């Protein structure tokens, strides 16, 4: 299957009318999206994300165990810091329940746009956070505290599973 990786990149458009074999299907439509990454800091919180289609990153979870201390913002900034190591990315996006206001505040501070949308969740309306990766990196360069991000990452538990 590694040979297929050289032939077909996940960002390259395939001819939708062309038949493909399993290796081509797996190499283009499954394998690039299996890897997930995360930052877990005991007693502080976590953020988890994965590469999506179209050179996008989907944020799956973010949680600060103790709210009101800037940990959510720091976790989101640390994620962007880590994403800079393996570009390209076009944008970063995620969903959450619209009734859950604290994460919306975090995402706004980090530079995301927020839209309320119909419910992809059983629990009601949702919010969509999204922003171009380029804008998020520029905002991180202005607002991010490299020393705090580095210290947070040093406390993180991040075994590759």
Q: In brief, what are we looking at here?
A:
This protein has 161 residues and is α+β, with helices and mostly antiparallel strands. The chain is 37% helix and 29% strand.
Describe it for me?
The protein is an alpha+beta fold. Helices cover 37% and strands 29% of the residues. Strands 1-2-3-4-6-5 form a 6-stranded mixed β-sheet. It is globular. The chain starts with a helix and ends in a 6-residue tail after the last helix.
Estimate percent helicity: 25-40%
Averaging pLDDT over every residue, what do you get? Answer: 89
- Report the total helices: 6
Q: Could you tell me how far the N terminus lies from the C terminus, measured between alpha carbons in angstroms?
A: 21 Å
Detail the topology: elements first, then pairings.
Blueprint: H1 2-7, H2 22-30, E1 36-41, E2 45-51, E3 56-64, H3 71-83, E4 91-97, H4 101-110, E5 113-121, E6 124-132, H5 133-143, H6 146-155
Helix pairs in contact: 3-4, 3-6
Labels describing this entry:
37% helix, 6 strands, 6-stranded mixed beta sheet, 6 helices, alpha+beta, disordered N terminus, 161 residues
